Structures are given as C-alpha cells and as structure tokens.
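Q&A FORM
Asked by: J.P.
Topic: structure of MMPL family transporter

PROVIDED:
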Amino acid sequence: MTLARRLGLAVLWLAVLGLAGAWIARHLEVSGDLRHFMPTARTPSQKLLIEELGEGPGARLLLVALSGDAPGELARQSLAMRDALDGDPRFSVVANGHDGGLDAIPEALRPYRYMLSPTVDGQRFDRAWLQEELDQRVQDLGSPAAAQLEALLPRDPTLETLRLADAWTPATAPELWHGVWFTPAPAADLAEATHAAPTADPAPATEASPRRGAGDREALMLLETRAAGFDPQGQQAALAAVRAAFDEVRGESPARLSITGPGAFSVEIGERTRREATLFGTLGGVGFGLMLLVAYRRWQVPLQAALPVATAGLAGLAAVALVFSEQVHGITLAFGFTLIGIAADYPIHLLSHQRPGRSAYESARTIWKTLATGVASTCLAYLTFFVSGVDGLRQLAVFTVAGLATAALSTRFLLPAVLDPVPRDVADLSLTHALLERVERLPRMNSTFSLGLAGIAAAAVVFVPGAFWENDLARLTPVPEAALARDLQLRHALGAPDVRYMIAVEGADADAVLAHTERMRPALDALRAQGAVADYDMAARYLPSLATQRARQDRLPTREALQAELDAAVAGTPFRPDAFGGFIDDVETARTARPLSAGDVAGTPLETRIGGLLLQSRDRATALVTLTGLVDPAAVAHVAKAEGATLLDLKGASESLVAEYRERVLWALGLAVVLLALGVGAVLRHVRRTMRVMAPMLLSTVLVVAVLRMAGVELNLFHLVALMLAAGLGLDYALFFDHAGHDRAEQRRTLHALIVCAISTLLVFALLGLSSIPVLRAIGSTVALGVLFNLSLAVLVTRRREGMA
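REPLIED BY: S.T.
REPLY: Here is the structure written out as tokens.
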C-alpha cells in the first residue's frame, strides 16, 4: 500500500473520530450525582443519606463570609449582595439576618399568623391584653424603630408577625451587627463593650456592639442553591453568581470573599481533579509517545498507536450514551479512561510482532487468538459488574467492554492498513537479545515456591495491624484540612445544624409526623435545658399540625366579639377607632380559613424552611429534627426511642452503605476471577497451561494487597476496581508469554512488546500515584504495583521450560 493511501486512510479514520466526538459532546450529559455509585438503600438512615446526598438542603447550602474591611463596610456589601442575589433563580434562600426573618412570612401568609404562632395557645384576645399591647405600641412609635413599625400596625397592632419571626429564629443564630449577621467578637472585646459608656450612635438593643477587635469580625451569609449538591454545573453557576455579586459591590474595598459548603467543595474537587488529570494525562501521553519513539524508532508510530486507543474511548462513551439515556457519571469517565489504558497494549503487541516479509494483516492474524482471548476474558470479567446492583458500576462495565472490544477489533482490522509495509523486526535489536539472555538466566518459579509466596503474602494481609477497610467517605475527599476546618468554623458561627445526627419520625402522612414531632417538644426542650443539645429544629416549628391549627382557630374570637374588645381597648389610647380594620379582617380570615398544609406554602420562603425537614412519598412521610451543638448522642438516642422516633447517624449510614457496596464489588470480583479462568481454559483447552497463565495474575493480586497493607494503606472501593484493572493487564502479559512458545525470535518480540507495555503503563499510573486526589492516588499506586508484580511473575511463572527457560 502506498504512503499516500496510508495517510489518506489515517486522515479518514481521524475524521470519523472527530465526527463521533462531536456527536458525543452534543448528546452526552456528565452527571456528578454520587448516588449512582451507591447501592440500594435499605435502612432509614441509608435512605435518608441517599436523599440528603443529592437533593437535601444540607447538600445545597453555601456558607459565605466577608472579611478584611471595617464592619460597617462589610455590612453594606452584605446587604448589597443580598439584594443582588435575592431574585436570582439559582438560589432558593438568600439570608444574612436582615429584616429579622420577616421575609420568611410573605404577604399571602400573614393573615394565617395566628394559626402558626403559639401565642394563641395561652392568650385570649380580650380588651385587657389588647389595651396593654396598644399602650406598648404608643411607646414604640416614639422610638427609633417607629418607621419600621408604622407599616405593620394597621394589620398587626400586637406585632404577632415579629413574634412569629422571632420564634422562627434559632437560638444559636449569629449576632446581628449593623443589621446583618457577624461572627462573634472575642470574649475580652465583648466584656469591654459591656462595660463601655453609651455612645451617641448606639447599635440596636438586639445587636452585639463590640468596640475592639471589630476588624477581625466577618459578615456572614447563608445561601441555599436550587441545584443539588452534586450537580457540578449548577453549583458552578451558583458560585459564579456569588463571586460576580461580590466583585460588583466591593468596589475599591480590600474585603475578601470566602465560600464553603458541599457545593463549593464539589466544584473544587472537580476542578482539582480536572487539573491533575490533565497534567498527568499530558505527562503520561508525552511519556507514552517518547517510549514508542525509543522502542520503534519511527515518528509515525505514536500517532498510529493512538488511533485504536482514541477509538476505544469514543466507543465507550457512545455505548454509555446509548444505553444510559445519554448520561454518564464523572467517576465512570475517570475510571473508564483509566481502564482504556489496557487498550494501549493492543497496538503495541501488533507493532512488536511485525516482521519483514509478512504483512501487517498477517501479523495481526498471528496474534489475534491470544489477543482476543485476553480481551474476551477481561470483558467477560467486567460484565460481572452488572450483578452488583450499582448503576455506576454498570456504566463502567458498558464503557470498558465497548472500549476494549473496539480497541481490539480496530487493532485487528483497521490499524494494519495504516502501518508501514516494511517494518523493523524488533527481534533483531541488540537490546532484545540482551534482555532475553538475562531473562533466560532467571530461575523459573515452581508451584511450591509460588504457593509459599502466596501464603506469606496472605499472612501479611491478615496479620498486619491496623484497619483493613476504609469506610469513611470523608477521608476520600481531596478538600484540604484547612478548608474543612473553615467550613466547620462558619457552620458554628451561623448555627448550622449538625450534619451527622438527626432524629427521624415516620408516619402515614405529613400531618401524622408533624403531630408526632409536636408531642416530642417537651422532651427536646428538656434535653436542651440539660445541655445535651444547644438547639433543635423541626418542620412543626413553622407548620403546626392540623389539630394544633384548629385548636388555635377555636380560641380566636368572632369578628363581632373582637370588634367590641378592640373598641374598648382603643378608647383609652391616641389611636383612631377605625385604625385597625385590617387586624379585624386578618383574625377573621385565620378563624374561618382551611388549615394550612405543606402544599399551601409551596413557592414561598416557608417552603424552603420545611422542605428539608419534611420528606414525603406516596405512602409514607418522614419528619426530621435537626440538632445543633449535639453533646450527648446517647441521651438524645434514649429520648428519641422513648418518644417513638429514631436518632439517625448519617456517618454510620454512609459506612454501612460503603460496606454493602464493597461486599457487592467483592462478589463481582470473585465471579470475575471464575469467568476469567473459564474463558482462558476454554481457549487453551489445557488445565496446566490455564493454571500457568492464571497464576501470575492471582499471585500478583495477593502481593499488591500485602504491600499496601504493610504500607499502612486502608483499602477502599477504588483499590478494588484498580486491582481488577491490574488483573486484566496481568492476564494479557501471561497470555502473550504463553503464546511465544519455543521460537526464540517470537520470544524476543513478545518480551519487547510486554516491556514497552509495562513501562508505558507504569509511567501513567506511577504519575497518578503522586496525585493529591485520594481516588487517583489509590488507582495509580495499586495499578503501578500490579504492573511490576504481573510482569515479573509472568516472566518467572508463565514462560516455557524449553527455549525461554
């Protein structure tokens, strides 16, 4: 075939890959929802964990701090950012303490305040109480707060709206200063402020007013995004909106912006992973290309070898897009392209097994049986992920099987068309002669030695002290410790609830669980008084049960009775007799209205308050009680059990999910080993040859685990999948050593191919082992060790007694 024709075919191949890549880019959606890599939840804690991971409000919170300038200027910036973000559709909650929580009670709900507020439980609307309230309003109108109260008084002379807003304010809410939330001042500064003389411009009575150290305080904001915590695109857009708002209001101020929370961390993790994957991928790709140049001494070879690998990656993506409704998880992509590293070996085998006088097609045909055996066995093994019950692993199986099969087929039928018709025979290289001579002097491992080595490695695995499995998902995060500590600091300052423990109450419907949690309030108040918790929150705090609302309606006076009592109360005040007609109308509306349900508050700020505390499905409802400042989990668990509820430990739930996930992966790996052995045995049709081919892979797996254990590494799920990848590489090495037979020239070609494969693979995965991302580091170190052991053992175990002996 002429050079022009080969180049034309290569260009055509690249064009097809370009078109396929464009189609995939348009149709494939990358998901960041971690729930795709979780098994089906079984316990209440696990179900809640899965819900919270994706859609729960805890996963959507962004904690914002402004620092680096005078408190007055920071407060101005906080208020300006609140105004800029309040109408942004990317946020469901934008809070900084301004308006004292009145924005949570929209105009449409204010007539119902007497059904929502506990004031009615112990107070009659008689003339004595009304006159006492009106006398207080007269005094209020002479205070600096008069301008804020005037708009409320015609409809709310008792200021029930403010009482309700205050009742909805957590006891652990941040301090107010200059009208917005701020971090607490140091104790010494607060003490000095307490004893300081009044100033000409004092802060409001409800705000802390430290006079020293104020420059160290930070203005705080709490944002809840509409995008789920593991929606990287949505979280990225929300973070961009916050930063843009800050840049707009900062001006020339030296203020600094700090953002933490699950969404911010997921974006940071994604960016760091992309940066490191790009860096290591680039370095690995360059190293791979240089290795091929050195090994084959022709500039075209790296480009030719890259064609089947690129085809494999695109085929894997296209298969996932077609099978899984055009959605692929980001972890599937990361793992999948790592697994495609096996595919890079296929063109190397063809290149090394070429020889003068034989066409590339004939060389491909010669190695095809061995290559196809390895590919089919590996694909069969990865198909075991379909029995894992985990959607993410099924995606990984589809990606890998489609990618490896495509790489093998393109190496067999397409790559020969673009290879040089007169190749260099690597068997004639002096280096391969020298390598073969050294290999021939190595002793061959017999079965006794292999079993003894396996026993020693297994003993190390079992008896090395320390935890074997890593169950804590938090330890797999690449978020720096300083960032996690900062997040904890802002959570404490904002009074955000504990993200590990919460109480759950299950019932037939929403009203049943609301009523149940209402009955728990005395016991929870007792726990708070004892110091077991600093505070708690529940949906019934904002939306009482239907029975409570009806009881409050029954205590409200009729229009005529209230009018008579109000007339008598107004008579002794400066107010006009007709000043409070709106108040009469609101009370009558509350008395006769249908009680509010969760559906009635949809689309209001109140919905966001109860959305994460009241979970509903078709036939069940769950009310959650979040806890702040939990000190004594045992005491809370005892009270919860006595009240017919359950204290959920989400950390324990995550660990149990990880354990179940690991169990399924282990079963899948065990089945994969059986299928690998059956596949190899069916092709080789010889028990001893099959055992000789399988032995290096099995022994290498035990040795890798032993080395990791002796290095103090606690194994996680990513180590397990990486072990399977290393096993696939090891099977490939052993099969080709077995294929070499007794022909010394073929042995040299095989040795050359496997050394090039091993070095290129080792280069890529050793770089991953240096990553700061725990997932990439686990994959890289495991596969790098696997390559070393598999190649060494394939040489010592699989090679024939004759010839290469």
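FOLLOW-UP: Residues 187-214, 801-805 have pLDDT under 50 and may be disordered.
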